[in-house]
């Protein structure tokens, strides 16, 4: 008898002839009602997962068609039970083990590629693993991380949902799936005009105004140098250091609140729990911001994977430093070249701090 299929239509409370719009509408209503953040009942998580699993299938025309065929088969009358087959021979068992070996080797190769930060190769290997073993939650999780790195949240959400279906008890995949769903829901509300677009605009405006005021301060401040003995930055003042740091904090927080960057903890770790190459580049930025920008371009080009959040943060800090450098041209105290070459070190650290604080305070 065919394996019974979960009733996704019943999970969403819709008929089998429902339109795509009706499917989306039912999903949105149920997500708001059963989201784990809105209830302390442990059963809510199970209900929520059934709802998201149903939507992932029914919102994809190809998967929906396959599911409908399987559902039809599962409701057909059972045929007479076949006679028990003879015990498998040792040769057959050896053949089965031989088929499993390539998948096991591919998983180990995938882990090694992730340890080395080779994301492009890891993506290829993860798909190879799934061809050998379609029930590998780990491989789906890797594909979800890579899609999220690129800013492709619809695909990331789908991959995490698959990983959860393979490993229902995984708190890691549940968290990441909920995060990406939250991002997608927020975008949907913003597109329909019912989201918090006002707060996002305010955050962006505050960031811009902060940088403009900082530029005015740099151009007009009469302060004397506080680092006269430090050759690379011997014209810097205490006010400039404060301005660089505060501009960074303002920009990082604004990007986070406006959801132009992902959550910091998601960007910083992989499915294996290891730090990503992008976090390692942050340490380089402490030594020299422009060197970290160069390494980011090199690493991303080699890996053929550009981290969406890191690229936006680097671009924003680069814009701040360019503006403050122009402001320093007007100043009689500051050397513009020193601001350009070394100012990014301070602002980038501030931006990361602002990003982390905005995440921690739930301002997103």
Characterization of the model:
By secondary structure, the protein is mainly α. It has three domains: 8-74, DnaJ domain (Helix Hairpins), CATH 1.10.287.110; 99-191, Tetratricopeptide repeat domain (Serine Threonine Protein Phosphatase 5, Tetratricopeptide repeat), CATH 1.25.40.10; 197-360, no CATH class. It contains 16 helices and no strands. The protein has helices spanning 8-12, 20-34, 43-58, 61-74, 90-115, 119-132, 137-149, 153-166, 171-191, 197-220, 238-257, 264-268, 277-287, 289-303, 308-330, 336-360. Mean pLDDT is 81; it is low at 78-86 and 88-101.
What is the approximate shape? elongated
Radius of gyration using CA atoms only:
26 Å
Q: Span from first to last CA?
A: 49 Å
Residue fraction in strands:
under 5%
Helix residue percentage: over 70%
Number of strands: 0
Write the element-wise H/E pattern from the N-terminal end onward. HHHHHHHHHHHHHHHH
User: Biggest sheet, open or closed, and with what strands and sense?
Assistant: none
Count of distinct structural domains: 3
Mean pLDDT: 81
Number of helices: 16
Oligomer: single chain
Low-confidence stretches: 78-86, 88-101
Structural class: mainly alpha
